[in-house]
Amino acid sequence: MNTLFGPERDRRFSVSLTQHDGVLVVQVAGELDPRTSPVLRERLRPVWGQADLRAVVLDTAGLEFCDSVGLSEIITTLKRCEAAGMRFLLSGVHGVLARVLTLTGLRRAFEIHDSAAEAIRAAAGA
């Protein structure tokens, strides 16, 4: 079976949420693209109404691929955080995502940390 476009493809992406003293860590793994971006959006939908959150860390250490649609979803998440008065931090940026952020000049638009732990410390210290 061709898993590039079949139902098996969705299993290549996962989102897990954990909260640490007002900082939400969103760990993504797999491929962020047109088929999986709605999964991230849906998982984050309840976050925008939480008054107790100061920051959202998107941990991309497990991300294997990110295309322009995935990048657009990350930018949308940044804008939603800003509108909700929350900080948005990226961690674990590597591979394709690091290259795309550098080539597009978007790297400067994001607060980027090497690890989720480092991003949590930065968000908690603010």
Automatic annotation (TrEMBL):
Q: Which positions fall inside the STAS domain?
A: 13-123
Q: Which CDD domains match?
A: STAS_anti-anti-sigma_factors (cd07043)
What SUPFAM superfamilies does the record point to? SpoIIaa-like
Q: Which domain of life is it from?
A: Bacteria
Q: To which protein family does this belong?
A: Belongs to the anti-sigma-factor antagonist family.
Protein name stated in the entry: Anti-sigma factor antagonist
Native source species: Planomonospora corallina
Classification from the root reads: Bacteria, Bacillati, Actinomycetota, Actinomycetes, Streptosporangiales
